[in-house]
Amino acid sequence: MTAAKPAPKPQAKSVARAGGRGRPSKAKGLDLKETILDAAEGLFARHGFHGVTTRQVAAEAGVDTALIHYYFGAKRELFDAVFLRRAEILNQAREASMNAYVAAHDPATMTVEGVIEAFIEPLLRISQDGGAGWKSYFALVAQVNNTPAWGGETMARFFDPVVHQLVETLKTLRPQAEYRDLYWCYQFLTGSMMLSLSETGRIDSLSEGECHSSDLEAVRQRLFSYCAAGFEAVIAKAK
Amino acid sequence: MTAAKPAPKPQAKSVARAGGRGRPSKAKGLDLKETILDAAEGLFARHGFHGVTTRQVAAEAGVDTALIHYYFGAKRELFDAVFLRRAEILNQAREASMNAYVAAHDPATMTVEGVIEAFIEPLLRISQDGGAGWKSYFALVAQVNNTPAWGGETMARFFDPVVHQLVETLKTLRPQAEYRDLYWCYQFLTGSMMLSLSETGRIDSLSEGECHSSDLEAVRQRLFSYCAAGFEAVIAKAK
DNA sequence: TTCAATTTTCATCACTTGATGAAAAATAGC
DNA sequence: GCTATTTTTCATCAAGTGATGAAAATTGAA
User: Which pLDDT tens digit goes with each residue over A40-99?
Assistant: First the structure.
């Protein structure tokens, strides 16, 4: 019914615009925004987009329901805000990690495992050191990654560039490899990585206590060499 | 409010019970049940449990909303029915496949890749030959596998036994390997496998047309050797 | 203090949700 | 055709959904 966008746009006018009179948003507004995002993040991660109501988010954050719409607009916009908040940090960390690896090695000493480690390690480190919010976030991404309806476009929108960077680096390292094979191997890698990062608890019960989802150190010790060996095997077989 | 279970139990009385008079459910009731399950399967696979309403399922199946509750009870019971229907077929096929592999080889000629192939191949074949319903089903399983809230227990309830069979077979083949490592490798394997089977379309756009989610032959040519090499590398490193 | 701008609360709307009970239609043994 | 049973439809409920407009409270510049 609404024509264009009657949307509320509180957006950080921060330091007061020229001639402005009103209240130049102090810290309180931002803190609340973050509180809402945190609450939404945890709930979305556990129950998915449709499994959460704006009222639940409001209750979890301890704010009025209307405030969510005031700050973020529609429910889907809130979700996007949750998704975007950490995606940028993540992409920067990964890009920096891969650039650092390439810069620190000359082509002769670079290895497939090294590149893969540079691609994955930032996520493991952030998940371990970044606080509980990051764990929820990875669970959220894993869920989106497996959502056919709109997951694909969402993932592409936020994460494609750094993936291309990985593939191109691997192509430089193994020029004889076909792109087909590299992309398929990436698909296998990301499936393993996301499931491990999302800490579903499945491996805990399956292994009857031998392994724990939360043990990212155990992931670190195995995932890099697992994926690297897989890549090499696929490339070798294709020749 | 309701005490115990006022639930409708139409359950196949099939061939008419002794002294029965009424109508001994012909074929129509069963067909309709399957139609509803098919509709629910497709919708759940695309949008998840909470992203689908019983009314949508009814509309898709071309039946009245009340009929769904008549046949399946609550929405969650419908979901479980969808999940269970193919899980049994799947488990039988995988168990048979692995047994056949073990029976056809003496220990000396068995390989890790062979065991893994016996574990995965049935799913690929069924997805290719079993009709569109199976593709939806795998997407559904992939989604459940990445759902922290209740996905873990659901997966365990339906799929743990055959996974233990895989791990035990691998343990026989590589007695020096630790269970820890085998379970982690399985975690990596299942992440890759489920993402590939669910055909999210993500690899299509990512690879800019080089690869296609629906190309399960491409998966077959790469996934077995990828995982096998990964397993061997992890086992070797642990020593 | 005044006052305009912002933030927060409150009440509520129009609509959808899962679910149910009662009536109607269909079915098959007698 | 009669009748007991099952299947299907219809109308509807109580609770909850996302969202909004208006009022109240808060804030800081003038």
Answer: 999 999 999 999 999 999 999 999 999 999 999 999 999 999 999 999 999 999 999 999
Protein residues in reach of strand C (CB < 7 A): A 10, 13, 20-23, 25, 28-29, 32, 63-67, 70; B 2, 6, 16, 21-24, 26, 28, 52-56, 65-66, 69, 73-76
Cβ pair B67, B32 in contact under 8 A: yes
DSSP structure string for B214-239: T-HHHHHHHHHHHHHHHHHHHHHHH-
Q: Using CA coordinates, name the residue in chain B closest to A216.
A: B184
| SS3 per-residue string spanning chain A | CCCCCCCCCCCCCCCCCCCCCCCCCCCHHHHHHHHHHHHHHHHHHHHCCCCCCHHHHHHHHCCCHHHHHHHHCCHHHHHHHHHHHHHHHHHHHHHHHHHHHHHHCCCCCCCHHHHHHHHHHHHHHHHHHCCHHHHHHHHHHHHHHCCCCCHHHHHHHHHHHHHHHHHHHHHHHCCCCCHHHHHHHHHHHHHHHHHHHCCCCHHHHHCCCCCCCCCHHHHHHHHHHHHHHHHHHHHHHHC
Residues in chain A with pLDDT < 50? 1-27
Q: Which of residues 16-75 of A touch B (CB under 8 A)?
A: 45-51
pLDDT attached to residue B29:
55
Question: Among all chains, which residue has been given the structure tokens 């999940």?
Answer: B83
What tokens were used for A120?
């994955």
Q: List Cβ neighbours of B14 (8 Å cut-off, separation of 6 or more).
A: B24, B25
Closest by CA position to B202, among listed A75, A10, A146, A101:
A146
DSSP B148: T
In 3D, which of B207, B141, B231, B172 has the Cα closest to residue A156? Answer: B207
* Contact across the interface for A145 and B211, Cβ inside 8 Å: no
Q: Does B160 contact chain A (CB < 8 Å)?
A: yes
Q: Tell me the chain A residues in contact with residue B229 when contact means C-beta distances shorter than 8 Å.
A: 229-230, 232-233
CB atoms A229 and B232 under 8 Å: yes
pLDDT for residue B112: 98
Instruction: Classify the C-alpha dihedral B145-A227-A149-A151 as positive or negative.
Output: positive
Enumerate residue ranges in chain B where pLDDT < 70.
1-30
DSSP one-letter code for B211:
-
Residues of B in contact with A45 (CB under 8 A): 148
Touching B: A residues 185-224, CB under 8 Å: 185-196, 198-203, 205-207, 210-211, 218-219, 221-223
pLDDT, tens digit, 9 for 90 and up, residues B154-196: 888 889 999 999 999 999 999 999 999 999 999 999 999 999 9
Instruction: Evaluate if pTM is beyond 0.70.
Output: yes
